[in-house]
Amino acid sequence: MNPIAVIGAGPSGLAGARALDRAGLPFEVYEAADDVGGLWNIDNPRSTVYESAHLISSRTTTEFAEFPMDSATDYPGHRELLAYFRAYAAHFGLTDRIRFGTRVTAVEPVGDDASGRSGWLVTSEPAGGGASVTRAHSAVVLANGTLAEPNVPAFAGSFAGEVLHTSAYKRASVFDGKRVLIIGAGNSGCDIAVDAVHHAASVDLSVRRGYYFVPRYLFGRPSDTLNQGRPLPARLKQAIDTRVLRAFTGDPTAFGFPKPDYRIYESHPIVNTLVLHHLGQGDLRVMPDVERFDGHTVHFRGEHDGDGPSADYDLVVLATGYRLDYPFVDRAHLNWTQASPSLYLNIFPPSFNGLFVLGMIEASGIGWQGRAEQADLVAAYLAAEQDAPEASAAFRRTAAGPWPDLTGGYDYLGLDRMSYYVNKDAYRRQLRRRIRSLPRPAGAAAGGGAAVGGAADAAEAADAADATVAGEGARA
Ligand SMILES: Cc1cc2nc3c(=O)[nH]c(=O)nc-3n(C[C@H](O)[C@H](O)[C@H](O)COP(=O)(O)OP(=O)(O)OC[C@H]3O[C@@H](n4cnc5c(N)ncnc54)[C@H](O)[C@@H]3O)c2cc1C
């Protein structure tokens, strides 16, 4: 059997390598950067974290269940997280099995056979340039990240000052003495606004809709560690959490934000109340949606065409998010429909062609353990394909029926960025159910290296951990 290729050594790729190793399956990891950690390695050219970036979900709800962080920090910063991923890779013997500095440029089916039955050819080149190499693999696990390719909307007119997407933002000195407009108030936009107020001449934040602002701490504890145990029904959780937020953070419309036209958790909540604090201090202003640029002037939408406010800026930061990108593989192989691939459980192309996607989940509070459970399922499926073909065929049949509801009863906004959004509890429940439906990998003992003996065991361990992971920590 040719080794399975894993593309990326960020949290998802590391989890993939770990799960394949534990299942006793041969694998090779391709990583374009010269270290593990993915976007948490600020020196990775594809990293989209900035100097002030910390976890948004808290440590205990985010870490891998089988490898708790050696830290007392509730919301560790990116440097501590990089050290964690290095320790994880070293502990499980993964570091030496990663081809660092190797960028994958093409993934193609052997002999043009789109069924993938003959395997896949992975072409890579040294990240610094050089001759490319093509290797044959029995399957390919794509874990190249979802938050690297900037989403840059089109605006009317043109801006004469500097324009920066959050993906290129690293440190606050870029704001020194400038009139700054940040477009978009997602988690990154709000973090960056807070950075900017200490450096810029002025900071405005342009928003299209209202947001829910969740404090990092509630009742003295990281907010996503509250509400332990079984998840509440969506409507009940929305009703309770809306009241709790009203009590703790007040009404964001009092700070100038529009009223959200959706319920809490129907879009990503913002885990940042510093932005409200700075609005209260007059360090920041909320502006409406941008109508058009004209030189250094930005015209904002008003109630009627042309009657909105306008202001002049030196620097515009586009906090407009990211779009999915798997540039090295033909979209047909991933069953792309509109903004994202349409994959069974956000992992498996419905044709089961030997490609598997890890990390293609947007969710509030799913953490790296959720990504590890994806990896466990992929490893269990690949092991079953090899050792228990009837079990893998039964698994494939589940994908032919109606796909499970992964929304948890939440009515998500119909936006591109929500097209692969899942509810963490509904999603992880499905993953564990599917893991249990597959046999324990026969090669598990040989490929182990840690106390946990197989994917199903990892899921059980995570079940136990889940007793404290029912909160709603949110991602950028
Ligand atoms: C500011 C910020 C805050 C966040 N906060 C949280 C949080 O609090 N909690 C949380 O759970 N998540 C958070 N996230 C989400 C974050 O995406 C995940 O934590 C995690 O990094 C996803 O891991 P990944 O391995 O899927 O992707 P990435 O971390 O993006 O790793 C992908 C890897 O693939 C490599 N790669 C890409 N293309 C190729 C190629 N062609 N060839 C070879 N290698 C390639 C990259 O170099 C990279 O190392 C945050 C993200 C940001 C930007």
TrEMBL record:
Keywords (A to Z) from UniProt: FAD, Flavoprotein, Monooxygenase, NADP, Oxidoreductase
Coiled coil: none
Keyword RNA-binding part of the UniProt annotation: no
GO MF term (any one): NADP binding
InterPro entries: FAD/NAD-bd_sf (IPR036188), Flavin_mOase (IPR000960), Flavin_mOase-like (IPR020946), FMO-like (IPR050346), NAD(P)-bd_dom_sf (IPR036291)
Superkingdom field: Bacteria
SUPFAM superfamilies found in the cross-reference section: FAD/NAD(P)-binding domain, NAD(P)-binding Rossmann-fold domains
One matching Pfam family: FMO-like
Keyword NADP: yes
Assigned protein family: Belongs to the FAD-binding monooxygenase family. Belongs to the FMO family.
Entry protein name: SidA/IucD/PvdA family monooxygenase
Organism lineage string: Bacteria, Bacillati, Actinomycetota, Actinomycetes, Micrococcales
